[in-house]
Automatic annotation (TrEMBL):
Acyl-CoA dehydrogenase/oxidase N-terminal domain boundaries: 14-128
Keyword Oxidoreductase belongs to the record: yes
Lineage: Bacteria, Pseudomonadati, Pseudomonadota, Alphaproteobacteria, Sphingomonadales
Cofactor requirement: FAD
Pfam families: Acyl-CoA_dh_1, Acyl-CoA_dh_M, Acyl-CoA_dh_N
Protein name (record): Acyl-CoA dehydrogenase family protein
Binding partners and assembly: Homodimer.
Domain Acyl-CoA oxidase/dehydrogenase middle: 134-209
Similarity comment text for this entry: Belongs to the acyl-CoA dehydrogenase family.
Organism domain of life: Bacteria
Keyword Oxidoreductase: yes
Amino acid sequence: MSGEALAIGIGPERAAEIAARVEAFVREVVVPYEKDPRRDHHDCPAEELVAELKAKARAAGLMTPHILEDGRHLSQRETAVVLRATGLSPLGPLALNTAAPDEGNMYLLGKVGSPEIRARFLRPLVEGRARSAFFMTEPSEEGGAGSDPSMMRTSCHVDGDHWVVNGRKAFITGADGAQIGIVMAKSAEGACMFLVDLPDPAIRIEHVPNTIDSSMPGGHAVVAIDNLRIPADQMLGRSGEGFRYAQVRLAPARLSHCMRWLGACIRANEIATDYACRRQAFGKTLIDHEGVGFMLSENLIDLRQAELMIDWCAGILDEGAPGGIESSMAKVAVSEALMRVADRSVQVMGGSGVSGDTIVEQVFREIRAFRIYDGPTEVHKWNLARKIKRDWKAVRT
């Protein structure tokens, strides 16, 4: 399973065939589990529920559908149609092993991991036998790294043939229950990235806060790292290269969020449309009232624009460009458009839209959090403004 092999696409027709199988599986098998009561105390899907769904996906030959058995990885454009299909239910990405943070971690390890790291850490992820966590964000009250990774305070230093890591991390998705961790820390040379087996007594979960979203097992933990010893051969690349590898992961991961949540909002709009076409008020169905009909029309426009933005950015990444600026643009455009879709879907359904009778209210909560995941809208706009200024200066000199 080489990094080179992982970069090869399979063609749009084969990708469309996989996406169709995934969509049928999600709609027919996964959706009925949305009422399953097996949830943890943060209302996230319980490990038992996820394991049951994964077993059914594995039996259907759909485990990790964007990575084939021979290690070939769908192109970003091909991945988009598959991940969109997995996102038709909040449980879909968990069932089919395309959820964050695992999907982004698999992409990173497939691109830059050594053969030994891929065999030890990537294979269990691809096979759906393990969950992972990406330890980068730090507590804001301590002045740690968030949207500005240069503020990283977690430190690492060499001790014989090991590195020793100390610090605290925050909002670490899936840390509770993960078997594999990617830990970022700062050495004298700069940022570093390490692979670790979990659980480890040196990595202690302090707190898992309740958050607005509830789709990711393990929640978003605050973690203390005390004298974590990591063998030197479990570093990705060399000391000081961590930020470069983070960019390899983050640009595609932003886009993957867009792909999955586009699927969720397509489903929310379907539910709202069905409601509006059945519900009677003031002598006619809701869809025949201009205010409601226009909201659903605007939903279709936003969904289509989000799809086109994803396809455009995916094409940039498929051409081999870093895609940082393009993925920032896609993250802003898609997350804001999908927020409008989710909000209108709730509004069209009225009281039913804010109840747990359908997934519409959950999609609304998840999309609200998505506007912050992988960088808030405002941070991406600020980054784009910096580029505008740089380009302006370049033209004038």
